[in-house]
Design brief:
By secondary structure, this protein is mainly alpha-helical. Helices cover 47% and strands 10% of the residues.
């Protein structure tokens, strides 16, 4: 059985291979490899378009939440949902509580703000770099129109830090 295919990981892998090939300095090989990728993309895109045409978008609705399927449909311009719906899917799939401030369709910039979600102790949860990478991967799958994400640092006020210390002596215990 083959390992699960992840659209974002596959895209990064293709880029890595093309970069390694470019590092050799062999321009003819680089040009041929890039052409091969384009031809294969066109071939698979045409096949996917024919599938969508024959079965219609309706029967595909149950798989719109699947990152790989959404990525392929979006990549080939076949996803029937608009970009705003797919951005909402990506944010929901990611799970990090964020507030959508806007999406500029001309520049591809998505503006987000961390949502006010109290953990009860004022502690952060998870590594911010990992969370940002996961969100970008999810957006790349569901909404490749998003070219960059800007996070608004003016987030809702942080939850109060719970201070734990020794209790001051009560009047009953004071000598």
């Amino acid at each position: 059985m083959t390992a699960a295919i992840d659209g974002a990981r596959a895209g990064r892998r293709v880029e890595e291979v093309l970069d390694r090939l470019a590092a050799t300095g062999d321009r003819a090989a680089c040009t041929a490899a890039e052409e091969l990728v384009r031809v294969l993309m066109d071939f698979y895109g045409a096949g996917l378009a024919r599938i969508v045409e024959k079965i219609g978008a309706g029967p595909l609705e149950p798989v719109y939440d699947d990152e790989l399927v959404a990525s392929l449909l979006s990549l080939h311009g076949l996803h029937p949902e608009d970009v705003h719906t797919r951005i909402a899917r990506a944010l929901a799939a990611h799970g990090e509580p964020v507030e959508l401030l806007g999406f500029d369709e001309n520049t591809g910039v998505l503006r987000l703000r961390p949502a006010a979600a109290s953990t009860g102790c004022g502690c952060g949860s998870g590594a911010p770099v990992d969370a940002a990478r996961t969100l970008e991967d999810s957006l790349a799958c569901f909404a490749p129109e998003v070219t960059s994400v800007e996070r608004d640092p003016a987030a809702a006020p942080a939850p109060a830090l719970l201070q734990i210390g020794t209790r001051p002596p009560s009047p009953a215990r004071v000598p």
